[in-house]
Specification:
The chain is α/β, with parallel strands linked by helices. The chain has a single domain, classed as Rossmann fold (3-Layer(aba) Sandwich). About 35% of the residues lie in helices and about 30% in strands. It contains seven helices and nine strands. The protein has a seven-stranded mixed beta sheet, with helices on both faces. The chain binds S-adenosylmethionine.
Length: about 210
């Protein structure tokens, strides 16, 4: 789990950058998302699918998902939770691992866009198991995040080189990820490298998985 300092650092980072996210929403939209279509297609196989967005952020993806189902969110950033009200998306304010979400029922689809790399190495598995616990069998999981060619580790880094906002995140590679998610019994449906990162060590990737 996070130390108090880690949790406060990450929460502060998103509280401070929430308005920037909203301003840049249309920019991010361009990159939404190589396999979001696959995720949505898989979900149309369920009747009125229930979809949970972890780390709802500026709500732009969650709002798109409303076209195909009933959408819920969770986020620890109060500004994003406030924003979700404008989109009429029920959103729990809380830290994902430490918040009890049993009361909101089960989901056919869960979306983790730029979310799971914000957990420590041994918490990623906890997060995936928690995801499984609120997902119907055969449910569909979207995961999109940066991958690194090199070592695995938990680092504190400036969010953007020219900002004062620090954030902790996990540096990990595709082999590590594939092992963890396979161990947690998700089957890969698609995986695409989306954007080149700003440094040679980093790529972005999106993927869709089925709970087995
Ligand atoms: C990098 S942003 C991604 C936002 C959105 N999913 C997107 O793709 O634009 C990460 C989001 O997850 C939230 N978040 C990060 N760690 C969290 C945690 N442990 N529990 C709940 N929310 C968290 C942040 O407040 C932020 O909205």
């Amino acid at each position: 789990m996070y130390t108090e300092e880690e949790l406060n650092t990450n929460k502060r980072c998103y509280e401070m950058s929430a308005s920037k996210y909203q301003e840049n929403s249309s920019l991010y939209e361009k990159n939404d998302r190589a396999v979001l279509g696959n995720f949505m297609y898989e979900l149309t196989k369920f009747k009125n699918p229930r979809i949970l967005v972890l780390g709802i952020g500026d709500c732009r993806v969650a709002n798109k998902l409303k076209e195909i189902g009933e959408v819920y969110g969770i986020d620890f950033c109060s500004k994003f939770v406030e924003l979700s009200k404008k989109y009429d998306i029920p959103c729990i304010e809380g830290e994902f691992l430490s918040t009890n979400i049993d009361g909101i029922g089960k989901f056919h689809g869960i979306l983790c866009a730029s979310f799971l790399h914000l957990f420590k190495e041994y918490d990623v598995k906890k997060a995936l198991n928690k995801i499984r616990s609120v997902m119907y069998d055969g449910g569909i999981l979207f995961v999109g995040q940066p991958l690194f060619k090199n070592d695995i580790g938990w680092i504190k880094e400036k969010k953007k080189s020219n900002s004062n906002q620090y954030r902790y995140h996990l540096v990990h590679n595709l082999d590590w990820w594939t092992d963890i998610i396979t161990e947690c019994k998700f089957l890969n449906i698609s995986l695409v490298k989306t954007l080149d990162g700003t440094d040679d060590n980093k790529i972005w990737w999106d993927s869709v998985w089925k709970k087995i």
